[in-house]
């Protein structure tokens, strides 16, 4: 009976020893086998692993891509406009041996805090070298890449691989909002005044050009009118001269009739003339008497 009990206890002890010497690493993990705090084995591939019971222990670390949200930090760009920046990073544990040596038993929580310090320092340094307009613009991928590249070397010392750094939100501090708004308003008003001044200048040029064109057209029209009028007068005088040469008596008759019609009209000023005036030569002539 004692022998059977002993064999049973021994079998159970063997089973327990075998069970405690086995461990499983899934595809989402990496594992280290430690003996008295020292690394004796690295298990990076998923599957079954072995360790010495009671003497060795297994520490597992996440092998997936992890995300880390940074607390909002205040940065001062090169133009001294303070900004509040909210960022996050994606990283993974690339070297579990170096990771364990760097953070010890603190594990992933300690590594995350140290990564925070690295990213905050690099964010301040990179964003402090550019203007606030560069940070607030939509095209700031180059800044995020600079932050990531600057943090890679220090993160590698922790066994971490920084995959990406992103700026989620960039705002002005509350106490600077009003001042910034007033400055932006003043800049827009100055730009509007410049546009109005340029518009007025262009309008003046257009008006001056139009006035000059009017003067030129009026002068050309007046010149053409005088030329035409001169040509018409010359033609009229030629006709009169030709008519006078053909029939001097008719010409004298026409000229006298024209003078009478222009002077002897109702409402005209009263004229006092001598009966012997040349004005009445045609009326006293035989032709005039016959006409009367």
Molecular structure report:
There is one protein chain. This protein has 292 residues and is of the alpha+beta class. The protein folds into 3 domains: 55 residues, no CATH class; 107 residues, Band 7 domain (Tetrahydropterin Synthase, Chain A), CATH 3.30.479.30; 81 residues, no CATH class. It is built from 9 helices and 9 strands. The chain is rod-shaped and about 185 Å long. The mean pLDDT is 79.
Mean pLDDT: 79
Please identify the top-level CATH class of the largest domain.
Alpha Beta
Which sheet architecture does the biggest sheet show?
4 strands, antiparallel
Poorly predicted segments: none
Total helices: the number is 9
Structural class: alpha+beta
* C-alpha geometry: rod-shaped
Helix coverage percent of residues? 55-70%
